[in-house]
Amino acid sequence: MLRPLVPEISDVHFQNGKSAQVLSLSDQTTSLEALGCMGLPMAQPTLVIIGGASLMSAESMERLQTVFDQVFAPLAQSLGLTVLDGGTDTGVIHMMGQARQSVGGNFTLIGVVPQGKTRLPSDRHHDDSLHDLEPNHTHFFLIPGDEWGSESPWLAKLASQISVGRPALTILVNGGQIALIDLKENLATGRPAIVMSGSGRLADSIAAPLPETDPAILELIQRYQPNGKLEIVDLSLPVDQMRDRLQQYFSSTLS
Q1: Is residue 212 in a domain?
Q2: Is residue 197 part of a domain?
Q3: Is residue 5 part of a domain?
Q4: How far apart are CA 149 and CA 177, in angstroms?
């Protein structure tokens, strides 16, 4: 019996005048097949953004947007990074898209979203369980599944395959239980992660664990922090210093 072909790419058009390519994957599609179908270049330095922005103060939200605008997006633009995130128009994903727009970026920005949580711009019915796609992304992979977390292994694997032989980094901001799944999956690939302390919730639990901290979080800390795969960077660090720290990581591994 022949395996089904990878579905064809479709284009979506957003109200801001931007468009993106979308690929809905089947259970039989491999991540390599999906990347080949999308025609994305491989061996690219890569940045993965995970987490959220829940329960943050207005001041912290403003500071975080500044970090996206003055650190993450400019570095992605200047270094030609491929950026991957959760794709929906909320939280840090929204900030990443807005930052790309703000800097006039043309770097590749990929969203990885469960099909059962996605509302396309052409969808006319309203469903509170569905989420709009962020309109400044360039590509979306819609992953089989109806629950958050079903996309987590795909996000980690796609990033690893895009970045093979090149530097790659995961950044955790804030986050909850799904971000913990994302972090586990990304660390398991061998890709280092930076945790933005001061951004709240999961990130702060990792940065300053308490005795009652979730054992799963403590296990990650014990496994990955001693070997330098899990690093803490404070959200209040001056943006030039933060930018230099990330630039140093990518530049040292690109040289």
Answers
A1: yes
A2: yes
A3: no
A4: 9
pTM for the whole thing?
0.95
Domain membership of residue 95 (yes or no) is yes
Give residue for tokens 């990347």. 35
Query: Which residue is listed with tokens 């972090």?
Result: 183
Nearest CA to 183 among 84, 45, 50?
50
Q: How confident is the model at residue 254 (pLDDT cuts 50, 70, 90)?
A: low
Report the pLDDT averaged over residues 102-124.
Answer: 95
Query: Distance between CA 74 and CA 39 in Å, rounded?
Result: 24
Number of structural domains (the chain) is 1
The share of the chain scoring above pLDDT 90, in percent, equals 87
In angstroms, the Cα distances linking 27 to 58, 77, 163 are 41, 33, 23
Element at 253 (helix H, strand E)? helix 239-254
List pLDDT tens digits, range 225-237.
Answer: 999 999 999 999 9
**Nearest 5°: phi and psi at 51?**
115, -155
With 60 as the cut, is the pLDDT of residue 4 above it?
no
- CA dihedral (137, 143, 147, 152) in degrees, to 10, reads -80
Distances (CA, A) of 90 to 80, 132, 198, 207, 229: 24, 8, 19, 24, 27
Tell me the two tokens of residue 253. Answer: 């591994």
What angle do helix axes 152-162 and 177-188 make, rounded to 10 degrees? 30
Report the CATH number at residue 240.
3.40.50.450
Report residue 231 as tokens: 């690093």
Full residue range of the structural domain in which residue 190 is found: 10-254
